[in-house]
Amino acid sequence: MPRILDTALVIPVIARLAVQAACELPAACLGALQDALHHEESPYGKETLAALIENAVYARHEQIPCCQDTGACLVFMEIGQEICWTGMPLAYAVNEGVRRGYTGGFLRKSMVNDPLERVNTGDNTPAILHTEIVPGDKAAITVFPKGGGSENMGAFAVLLPSAGEEGIKRFVLKKVEEAGGNPCPPVTLGIGLGGSTDYCCLLAKRALLRPHGSRNANARYARLEEELLDAVNRLGIGPMGTGGRITALDVRIEQYACHITALPIAVSFQCHAARIACEVL
């Protein structure tokens, strides 16, 4: 028998997760910043990291946003195939949850109604909603605020297959160098490889959802993640662009099959405040 859920159930969950994500940096992210402070050698870099950590701890304690840019609200839902939804359309419920979270939580509203008209919607809707059907009868909801400073640095290209691993490294390092301090490092880099133009960019975003320090299940890509992390941290950009050893906290790759003529690559930057909150229905 299918599990029947009313879409209204997601409204308070998303509202709560939106505020939680804005105010409470995940423990793994805070731990990564503390580890970065231990390894940073630049005095300015250490001072900057200490300030970022202090800010994150204070934000959690006082339940205020850890960054003034509370971002576009990305919502990822993994929906069990045994669930049957009833009630209002799911997208309506998701947007109502975002609306309540951002207005009730006094979070900054950053969405405009149109790329050219640019009138603020006033409630941070519409959300950017991604759904995936998975086995089972659970629904996992992830709220992922994406700030403009990091999002603006994202990049996509279709390389020739002959570019290989070295071409991937050159592309990523070039984009990190071009970004400099704009994405508020130390960053987390999500890299999508393969798929089509649209799916490759989604892979890069999904890579950012993985826990800090997790490695790709494929040994080749896990090695490439480590090599890219080391190479990025040799660039000398440092925390908030002040110079130093730690420019990235993590690099994560998600890969998918692709056409014989192409090697699609997408890079998604996440700032030092890798904000995310999850709940399972």
What does this structure look like?
- By secondary structure, the protein is α/β, with parallel strands linked by helices.
- The chain folds into two domains: 3-22 and 66-146, Dihydrodipicolinate Reductase, domain 2, CATH 3.30.360; 149-273, 60s Ribosomal Protein L30, Chain: A (2-Layer Sandwich).
- The chain is 39% helix and 23% strand.
- The chain has eight helices and ten strands.
- It has helices at residues 10-23, 27-39, 43-62, 90-104, 148-151, 164-179, 197-209, 219-232; strands at residues 3-6, 72-80, 83-86, 128-134, 139-146, 155-159, 187-193, 248-255, 263-270, 277-280.
- The chain has a four-stranded mixed sheet. A four-stranded mixed sheet has the order 6-9-7-8.
- Helix 1 (10-23) packs across helix 4 (90-104), helix 2 packs antiparallel against helix 3 (43-62) and helix 6 (164-179) runs parallel beside helix 8 (219-232).
- The longest helix has 20 residues, at 43-62.
- The radius of gyration is 19 Å and the shape is globular.
- It starts with a strand and ends with a strand.
- The model has no long low-confidence stretch (mean pLDDT 97).
CATH class of the largest domain equals: Alpha Beta
The largest pleated sheet is described as:
4 strands, mixed
- The low-pLDDT segments are none
Strand order of the largest sheet: 4-2-5-10
Radius of gyration: 19 Å
The name of the CATH topology of the largest domain is 60s Ribosomal Protein L30, Chain: A
Chart the SSEs and their pairings.
Elements: E1 3-6, H1 10-23, H2 27-39, H3 43-62, E2 72-80, E3 83-86, H4 90-104, E4 128-134, E5 139-146, H5 148-151, E6 155-159, H6 164-179, E7 187-193, H7 197-209, H8 219-232, E8 248-255, E9 263-270, E10 277-280
Parallel strand pairs: 1-3, 2-4, 7-8
Antiparallel strand pairs: 2-5, 5-10, 6-9, 7-9
